[in-house]
Amino acid sequence: MDLTGTTALPIAMPPAKKGNGRTLDDLTVQATPTEKRLWHALTEVTDPEYPISVVDMGLIYGVREQDGAVNVDLTFTSMGCPCMEYIISDIRERLLQEPDVQSVDLNVVWTPAWTRQRLTEAGRAQLAQWGVGTGEAS
């Protein structure tokens, strides 16, 4: 367990698509209907540095639900991210508002590391509106 009260675990993830990024549908293709609802709820949790959801930033690696217990695998853009506790608190608070969610366990994942390829298409578009480049030619 780390200072945020979460467990840091490695996780096997499919590689991020190159190019225009992913969509929420890409991220939830194997999710149950409840898990899809939880992913959608997480689109309301924004990164404090930019008004972009943690889903569109590519910080959420996985969401699982069983009998009201939700497990979220997430990462941050860096190990020194000053917003970790804020984001974790917001995720937990938002998911606990969902019907039938009894508990939320957050697992901080550092492997694979976050890269800009994890951004969704919507995240790339929102960053571009703020004048933040994603390293790809337009």
Structural category is alpha/beta
Helix content: 25-40%
Shape: globular
What fraction of the residues are assigned to beta strands by DSSP?
Answer: 15-25%
Number of strands: 4
Looking at how many chains there are and whether they match, the oligomeric state comes to single chain
Q: Would you tell me which CATH topology applies?
A: GMP Synthetase, Chain A, domain 3
- Whole-Å distance between the termini? 41 Å
Radius of gyration: 14 Å
Largest sheet: 4 strands, mixed
The residue-averaged pLDDT reads 83
CATH-derived architecture: 2-Layer Sandwich
Strand order of the largest sheet: 1-4-3-2
Number of helices: 4
Domain MIP18 family-like: 37-105
Organism: Deinococcus aluminii
Pfam family, one: FeS_assembly_P
Region (Disordered): 1-24
Please describe the topology of this protein.
Layout: E1 7-8, H1 24-27, H2 33-42, E2 60-66, E3 69-74, H3 84-95, E4 103-108, H4 121-129
Protein name: MIP18 family-like domain-containing protein
Region (Disordered): 1-24
Pfam families: FeS_assembly_P
Commentary on this structure:
The structure is a single chain. This protein has 138 residues and is an alpha/beta fold. The protein has a single domain, classed as Fe-S cluster assembly (FSCA) (GMP Synthetase, Chain A, domain 3, 2-Layer Sandwich), CATH 3.30.300. It contains four helices and four strands, in the order βααββαβα. The chain has helices spanning 24-27, 33-42, 84-95, 121-129, and strands at 7-8, 60-66, 69-74, 103-108. The protein has a four-stranded mixed beta sheet with strand order 1-4-3-2, with helices on one face. The longest helix is centred in the middle third of the chain and has 12 residues, at 84-95. It is globular, with a radius of gyration of 14 Å. Residues 1-20 have low confidence and may be disordered.
